[in-house]
Structure formats: structure tokens, C-alpha cells
């Protein structure tokens, strides 16, 4: 539908702002995603290659349909 792209982008930016604000005040700092640099759901001191929810979903899609 015409005109919905701008609304969807604004909603996404607001969701990211809320998520960042919640994580800043409570708990340890969050690790950055190794693919895109966005904050993950994991603390920064957790070992391993951590992915944000979006990149985790993309990785699962790639591995699920690899045959």
C-alpha cells in the first residue's frame, strides 16, 4: 500500500529506541551483534559469536533450508 513504508520505518525506530532505553538502565551492558552491530539479548561478557534477534532469525532460515 502506498504510504505505509514511512509508517513502518517510524515504528521500527521507536521500537529500537525503547529497547535501547530499557537495556541501558537494567542489568549488564549488552553485547553487539557480530554481523550488524546492533545490541543482542545477551550480556557483553558472554563468550561466543553473538547475534541480534534479526540476524539469529536470518541464520536459522539459511540453515533450515540448506538442502
Number of helices: 2
Give the helix/strand class. Answer: mainly alpha
Q: Could you state the order of secondary-structure elements as H and E?
A: HEEH
* Strands, count: 2
- Computed over alpha carbons, the radius of gyration is 15 Å
Q: What's the average pLDDT?
A: 75
Share of residues in strands: 5-15%
Shape: elongated
Describe the sheet with the most strands: 2 strands, antiparallel
What fraction, in percent, of the residue positions are helical? 40-55%
Q: Which regions are unreliable across 5 or more consecutive residues at pLDDT < 50? A: 4-21
The largest beta-sheet arranges its strands as 1-2
C-alpha termini separation: 35 Å
Task: Considering the chains and any ligands shown, give keywords for the structure.
67 residues; two-stranded antiparallel ribbon; 12% strand; elongated
Description:
There is one protein chain. With 67 residues, the protein is mostly helical. Helix content is 51%, strand content 12%. It contains two helices and two strands, in the order αββα. It has helices spanning 4-25, 53-64; strands at 30-32, 39-43. Strands 1-2 form a two-stranded antiparallel ribbon. A hairpin with a 6-residue loop joins β1 and β2. The longest helix is centred in the first third of the chain and has 22 residues, at 4-25. It is elongated and about 40 Å long. Mean pLDDT is 75; it is low at 4-21.
Amino acid at each position: 500500500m502506498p504510504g505505509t513504508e514511512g509508517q513502518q520505518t517510524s515504528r521500527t525506530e521507536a521500537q529500537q529506541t525503547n529497547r535501547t532505553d530499557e537495556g541501558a538502565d537494567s542489568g549488564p551492558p549488552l553485547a553487539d551483534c557480530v554481523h550488524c552491530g546492533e545490541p543482542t539479548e545477551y550480556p557483553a561478557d558472554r563468550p561466543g559469536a553473538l547475534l541480534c534477534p534479526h540476524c539469529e532469525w536470518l541464520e536459522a532460515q539459511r540453515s533450515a533450508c540448506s538442502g
